[in-house]
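From the shared-data thread, chain only:
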Amino acid sequence: MAKINFGGVIEDVVTREEFPLEHARNVLKDETIAVIGYGVQGPGQALNLRDNGFNVIVGQRKGTKTWEKALADGWVEGKTLFTIEEACQRASIIQYLLSDAGQIALWPTVSQYLTAGKALYFSHGFGITYSSQTNIIPPKDIDVILVAPKGSGTSLRRLFLAGEGLNSSYAIYQDATGRAKDRVVALGIGVGSGYLFETTFEKEVFSDLTGERGVLMGAIAGIMEAQYNLLREKGHSPSEAFNETVEELTQSLIRLVGENGMDWMYANCSTTAQRGALDWRHRFREATAPVFRDLYESVASGKEAEITIKANSRPDYREKLEEELAAIHNSEMWQAGRQVRALRPKNG
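Structure, as tokens:
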């Protein structure tokens, strides 16, 4: 492991230098990896593993759109593409990459194939951490491991094809074979991680649910709406309000942050912008801190899991979801966004 200094905190991380791809392949040379689910994470992880030379198969329901997508991606029925049951039977490592709701529904089927010595792999700690609500309780004689890429499967695949990597966390919930550490790190390298940092199933899901409800999705959407609505209320045009709220952030500033950090982005803005940002960040931090505390407590108590499971189990879940997404889609701010994106100059 490499020791990295994160602002005074020393962390052990795994990089491709001390755990190269060749070693990862050797660790798993006798393993068959079955990727169960071909939706969000499944395609990226499965394709990266395949391209990296691992023995990987896909398990999916026949006749579904995802089955057809797997065929289009080059998986061959009867050779590398099987029903979920057959893939689980053939595998020594089962990558359980269905949605959280899908994992709950399919658990009685998949659990039948978890024989001694196999490994059950997750990319989210939800099912295990909230087992009292999901009823996902693995047998004691298997390894239970996790690799959680810090982004979508689409991003994982895109970065892999560009010769880059997406950072991932890893965790071991259960080590029945004594090989769980080697297995999980090899899989993390195999799916295309930039580097791997250690966590637990509980910490992964607590940070993940907080992050997606907070800065990554919920908070940023709410803050954008608040600023856009204020600018419109004060007489600014939709174009001006959207450009100042979203377009400049997504097309310019956040890219600078991603390249070199917030301080570097500040240093490359006007002195007027610098002063305003430095002065007002404290007020925004203090204003939102109580909301984040409430959010984390809701996650840690299991309330957010309860809400998610209840919503996803409704027979009209898809219809209700489409209604909620349509409200965002049809709002003036995102209608303005479509117009702004259409006006961006095209290369060629």
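The chain is about 55% helix and 15% strand.
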